[in-house]
Write a structure and sequence with these properties.
Shape: globular
CATH topology of the largest domain: 2,3-Dihydroxybiphenyl 1,2-Dioxygenase, domain 1
Low-confidence stretches: none
Number of domains: 2
Strand content: 35-45%
Oligomer: single chain
Number of helices: 6
Structural class: alpha+beta
């Protein structure tokens, strides 16, 4: 069964800066509010399928809040990804497999209208799998308190299609995903990127290992961090409409075993090679 992406996290040290970058390419975030503890805030770009891109930042620009340690550590762009599931069940399953877990832990955020959204989160897997394996979330209040409707309902974007995870060991990362989530055998994808990419049929995840001999933005991003998401791809069923509505660049074709899909990146420095659009089947 395909994992249900709840949201993906783009962490940046300055909230206004990431908002300006999104607005410059045609994405319109909605302010989500301040998290419990007061150290972080977010804005959301929500999609018709219920998934969303979370733009999370410190309330004091340039600080490094420890409230989200283990989920947000670097504040340099794509940081983590989250699935919506029964948190206690997935943690229990991980424990039975001998994996360490953290949680379940409560979380909350007060929206600008005073509504308090509450949830439970949990993390699982060895430390070196952080960012390869998602964290899990379950709402304690109605989900619409946390995600109050799509911000791009009338446009060509439909949801978060794929998480591209930069890895040091494809073998270990595949093992973790297969062990806990029963992923299939991965297949190669041929892309214009200076990287080897493996994807899991039917799952919203690809593993990306930048070519070490090639100087590339993706390789630089992986050098700066541990293995973790390097990019997020948003889905569209109308690629031409997406190109017309949003500022996109570096349009390329990704070749899978039995199909081809076009991909483009949002054309602003802060998002280029970090957030893009992929053609849906």
């Amino acid at each position: 069964m395909s994992l249900n992406i709840d949201h993906v996290l783009f962490a940046w040290p300055d909230h206004d800066e990431i908002l300006s970058a999104c607005e410059a390419v045609g994405l319109v975030p909605r302010f989500g509010g301040v998290h419990d503890g007061g150290e972080t805030q977010n804005s959301l770009i929500a999609f018709p399928d219920g998934s969303y891109l979370e733009l999370i930042a410190p309330t004091e620009p340039g600080t490094n809040p420890d409230r989200w340690a283990g989920i947000v550590d670097h504040w340099r762009g794509p940081e983590n990804w989250c699935i919506q599931t029964d948190v206690r069940s997935i943690l229990t399953r991980a424990l039975k497999m001998g994996m360490p877990v953290t949680g379940p832990n409560p979380g909350s955020r007060e929206r600008p209208d005073g509504t308090n959204a509450e949830w439970t989160i949990g993390r699982y897997g060895p430390h070196q799998a952080r960012g390869v394996l998602p964290f899990a979330i379950a709402d304690r209040t109605p989900r619409e308190f946390r995600v109050p409707g799509a911000t791009v309902m009338d446009g060509p974007l439909t949801g978060v299609a794929e998480v591209l995870i930069g890895v040091e060991s494809v073998h270990d990362s595949t093992k973790w995903l297969q062990q806990i989530h029963d992923f299939p055998t991965p297949i190669d994808v041929t892309t214009p990127l200076a990287a080897d990419i493996l994807t899991f049929p039917g799952q919203p995840v690809s593993l990306l290992k930048p070519e070490t001999e090639t100087v590339s933005a993706l390789a630089h991003q992986l050098d700066e961090t541990e293995q973790q998401p390097l990019a997020f791809l948003l889905s569209t069923k109308d690629f031409e409409a997406a190109i017309e509505q949003f500022a996109l660049t570096d349009i390329g074709e990704w070749k899978y075993r039995h199909r081809r899909r076009r991909v483009a990146w949002f054309d602003v420095d802060l998002l280029r090679t970090r957030v893009g659009v992929i053609e849906d089947d």
